[in-house]
Amino acid sequence: MNNGGGWGYGGGGYRGSGANRQRQNRQRARHVARARSVSYRANPRGYRLGGGTKPFVVGALVGAAVGGAAVYYKLMEMPPGMGRKRVAVSADESAAATVHPAMRQGWPVGTESLLRVHSGYVASFDARTRNPRWVLEVLNKATCEGVGNRKLSAFVEDAAFGERHRNRLSDFRGSGYDRGHLAAAAGHKDSQLAMDETFKLCNVSPQVGAGFNRDYWARVEKFTRDLACTTGGDVLVATGPLFLPTKVAGQSTRRTVEVSGGSG
Question: Domain ENPP1-3/EXOG-like endonuclease/phosphodiesterase spans what residues (predicted)?
Answer without folding.
Answer: 118-261
